[in-house]
Amino acid sequence: MLPLLVRFVLGPLVRALYRPEIRGVENIPATGPVLLAPNHRAALDTGVITFTAMRPVKFLGKAEYFTGRGLKGKMMAGFLGGLGYVPVERGNAQAGLAALEAARKVLDAGGAFAIYPEGTRSLDGRLHRGHTGVAALALATGAKVVPVALSGTENLQPAGKRIPRRAKITVTYGAPLDFSRYEGQDSSPAIRRSVTDEIMYAILELSGQEYVDSYHKRPDQSAA
């Protein structure tokens, strides 16, 4: 019931309250496997996509969010599940493989899955080099990729604010990208890199951000 509540009750309520400008939502195939590939501006990006895509979308979520005890923990796990989160462990190479496998199961079942190619939120507002996981999924499953540009979401919840405020945000869904021409070549690192770069260029065209041809490095991390 929770996914239906999110889609048909909470979704329209949020759209009416925050009034996001939604462009190109018709570019999302109504059926069949599809990968949404958004830029990443803010922690609330996932919610924005959930409430604007007009189709149930799955995302990866930290497993610890689903393991809380008591009624509060169960309610949190249920709410996150309703938003489309799939619990996965994080923090090592094996966890990364498990995350890709979880995403692949969604796509193999004909679902919609969203993955942020940059891997983390942009702290400087620029679009950074994409990791090749998005290409690996597209090539392995045959799913079409819909590039997505989010704008203004970084203003929804300023530091220190618990409740999102109204801000001008735009969500642009681009034309689907079809990589069936690379069928059978999903194990090639060069092909994965080429597909990822094509996806990032499509996001760049939609978002108008400055592009940085290096992985995003957070203050306490080394480059990926």
Automatic annotation (TrEMBL):
Keywords: Acyltransferase, Transferase
Source organism superkingdom: Bacteria
Pfam families, per the entry: Acyltransferase
Domain Phospholipid/glycerol acyltransferase: 34-153
InterPro entries hit by this protein: Plipid/glycerol_acylTrfase (IPR002123)
Statement: the UniProt record of this protein carries the keyword Transferase: yes
GO biological process: phosphatidic acid biosynthetic process
One of the record's GO molecular function terms: 1-acylglycerol-3-phosphate O-acyltransferase activity
SMART domains: PlsC
An annotated GO cellular component: plasma membrane
PANTHER family named in the record: 1-ACYL-SN-GLYCEROL-3-PHOSPHATE ACYLTRANSFERASE
Record's protein name: 1-acyl-sn-glycerol-3-phosphate acyltransferase
Species, as recorded: Amycolatopsis thailandensis
Record lineage: Bacteria, Bacillati, Actinomycetota, Actinomycetes, Pseudonocardiales
